[in-house]
Amino acid sequence: MGSLEKERTTTGWAARDPSGILSPYTYNLRNTGPEDVFIKVICCGICHTDLHQIRNDLGMSNYPMVPGHEVVGEVMEVGSDVTKFRVGDRVGVGCIVGCCKQCSPCKSNIEQYCNKKIWSYNDVYLDGKPTQGGFAESMVTNQKFVVKIPDGMEAEQAAPLLCAGLTAYSPLRHFGYNRSGVRGGILGLGGVGHMGVKIAKAMGHHVTVISSSDKKKEEALEHLGADAYLVSSDAAGMQAAADSLDYIIDTVPVFHPLEPYLSLLKVDGKVILTGVISTPLQFVSPVVMLGRKSITGSFIGSMDETAEMLEFCKEKGLTSMVEIVQMDYVNKAIERLEKNDVRYRFVVDVAASKLDE
């Protein structure tokens, strides 16, 4: 993964404990190895997973931790064996920075399902050095886990696509829904959800947004282009929509019942879980059995899918709805994210921030 003979120093913002409060932290990056790319970070999106990790919600956090896995930057140096990138390229780095390259998922180019994958942060490289994320001025990443940002796509628009956009795109592609005439549902209208609506509509789907209240109805229908809007507590509305959807992408990252949403599916329909939830979900089996329905999951996407998704978004003119902040606002942004007070993704302008203050 690179040489340790010489190390670069960089500054990021790290959590030191489960309070999740971020503050400046200076640490070493490894020197650029033969297959590594040295990247100056331009910006980085804030994902709900970052909140889980910095607060140890999943019980496996290691500190100090620099979060951030929706990273867009500029290539400043490439290793001698790097063939995909040149100095000056705008590139992205997502959730994963390493894999075993030997297992079946790796050999099938779905390395996100490798059991030995290396996370962008809160993990360690093969040499034992901690990984740190994109809330920092620079990163060193193996070329396999770097993707070119299409020309003409703004950095702050591209950043959320590397997780939120990919999380919505990958299951639609994998399950064969990347075609017109499909009726889909998007449960939860946050970072992943709003991109799910845009991507599904661009694929030619009839899209229903499902939410816990009607406060985002106008946004969903008039600004994002959804075809219908359901409030989950509206029993009559939910009953009227029963057996109408081919799939539901469930983006909700907190505990919620599945049965109301399973009832919306047609025979052979799928609820696709994409939100990270630390408590068990529950349902009664007949609601699945009597419609041959499936509860499945999808985790981000492969590097091949990442490149494909970015080109799809460029071709269709799809952009993320973002609120740009600087690093000195990041703790407030995380508080607001927890309250779902963002339309729909915070992006930290790392390059314009003073990281050491």
In short:
By secondary structure, this protein is of the alpha/beta class.
Outline the secondary-structure elements.
Elements: E1 7-15, E2 22-30, E3 36-46, H1 48-54, E4 71-78, E5 90-93, E6 96-98, H2 104-107, E7 118-119, E8 138-142, E9 146-148, H3 155-158, H4 164-174, E10 183-187, H5 191-202, E11 206-211, H6 217-223, E12 228-231, H7 235-240, E13 245-250, H8 259-262, E14 265-273, H9 286-289, E15 294-297, H10 303-316, E16 322-325, H11 330-338, E17 345-348
Parallel strand pairs: 10-11, 10-13, 11-12, 13-14, 14-15, 16-17
Antiparallel strand pairs: 1-2, 3-4, 3-8, 3-17, 4-5, 5-9, 6-7
Helix pairs in contact: 4-5
Protein architecture, described:
Mean pLDDT is 95; it is low at 1-5. Strand 16, helix 11 (330-338) and strand 17 form a beta-alpha-beta unit. The chain has helices at residues 48-54, 104-107, 155-158, 164-174, 191-202, 217-223, 235-240, 259-262, 286-289, 303-316, 330-338, and strands at 7-15, 22-30, 36-46, 71-78, 90-93, 96-98, 118-119, 138-142, 146-148, 183-187, 206-211, 228-231, 245-250, 265-273, 294-297, 322-325, 345-348. It is globular, with a radius of gyration of 20 Å. Helices cover 23% and strands 27% of the residues. The longest helix is centred in the last third of the chain and has 14 residues, at 303-316. It starts with 6 loop residues before the first strand and ends in a 9-residue tail after the last strand. Helix 4 (164-174) packs across helix 5. By secondary structure, it is α/β, with parallel strands linked by helices. The strands form 4 sheets. Strands 3, 4, 5, 8, 9, 16 and 17 form a 7-stranded mixed beta sheet that branches. Strands 12-11-10-13-14-15 form a 6-stranded parallel beta sheet, covered by helices on one side. The chain has a two-stranded antiparallel ribbon with strand order 1-2. It is built from 11 helices and 17 strands.
